[in-house]
Amino acid sequence: MMATALRHSIDRFADLPTLYAQMVATPEYQAAFGDPMPLSIAEPGDAPAEHEMPEPIAAQAECGGIIAAIFDLFTGTRLEPLAPDIAWGFVNSFHYLAGKLEKREDGFAKELGELARDPEGSEIYARSLEEKQIQCQSLAEQRQAIECMRDYAAEMYRAQSGWPWSPARGTRASSASSASQIAAIDFLRARQLEQRERHLPQGPVVVVTGPADWHDWQAIWARLDAIHARVSHMILVTTGQRRGVDQIAAAWAARSGVEVPVVRYGLYGTGRKTAFTRNRKILELKPVEAVLCEGSGVQANLYQLLRQANVPIHALRKADQSPDAVRVPPRASRRGH
């Protein structure tokens, strides 16, 4: 099945040779699968044991093969329009599971912190502390592996459908790094730093905002590619909409090789002034550059604020968008929300 999917997909999509045909596991897969912990706990309540991890190249190939097979099976049939929806759900299942694992990881980290702050000298205490640490590390290892598969499946989805994948809800943050046995306190500190960098990243802010009714993703991606070339450690700030400009920008940030943190600066509160207050809050982030797509009066207000602050602005007009003839195929755009 995999060989057939590979052969057909490469004939149709230029992106796939770099994603799938080169049968060498990417550094992300090598990091997530290639250096497992000596001991792990596969299920809560189990004793620490030596459990194998899937081979990096096998995990990468099978993950990509499933996405390719979905499109190959449906192409040329009356089910073809459904392929992007099914493939989107497959990617989202990894995203959903990664979130569940992170919540469980947070719970064990809290218990581990409470134990570490109240040390005892007993053998029972030492064994309990060690098992809690291994459990937390095991969950972190599982989460990193699932996030790695999600990110690769998302790239395959983009190559096959022509539209970048994005989650229906929640944030997307991933990192592939091998776990090692370290002291409980050091482990918690390292984990807190990782979470802070994943969810509260530090770096120069680039603002991207615009209306939900926007289809020209190539123009936005081109501007962001140029900015990223100059500001490689940038943070992307959007207004958190699930469609249009914000979704296009978030999908760009999630591409393999880009991996730019995204902060969704949504609306908090009600009333006519809420959006304008948010604009001022965005200005307080001291952005170094901005991509603004033509929209409402709120968007015009943000343009004026940034211009007064001498922030370089890439302004895109609705009338300058690519025509409908070069839009992303409608079957793929249904997942742009």
Task: Describe this structure as you would to a colleague.
- This protein has 337 residues and is α/β, with parallel strands linked by helices.
- The chain folds into 2 domains: 198 residues, no CATH class; 129 residues, Rossmann fold (3-Layer(aba) Sandwich).
- Helix content is 55%, strand content 6%.
- The chain is built from 12 helices and 5 strands.
- Strands 3-2-1-4-5 form a 5-stranded parallel beta sheet, sandwiched between helices.
- Strand 1, helix 8 and strand 2 form a beta-alpha-beta unit.
- Helix 3 packs antiparallel against helix 6 and helix 8 packs across helix 9.
- It is globular, with a radius of gyration of 22 Å.
- 37% of the residues are buried.
- The N terminus and C terminus are likely disordered.
Task: For this entry, give a set of tags.
337 residues, alpha/beta, Rossmann fold, five-stranded parallel beta sheet, 12 helices
Topology:
Layout: H1 2-12, H2 16-21, H3 27-33, H4 56-74, H5 83-117, H6 123-161, H7 184-199, E1 205-209, H8 217-230, E2 235-238, H9 244-253, E3 262-264, H10 274-284, E4 289-293, H11 297-308, E5 313-316, H12 330-333
Parallel strand pairs: 1-2, 1-4, 2-3, 4-5
Helix pairs in contact: 1-4, 3-4, 3-6, 4-5, 4-6, 5-6, 8-9, 10-11
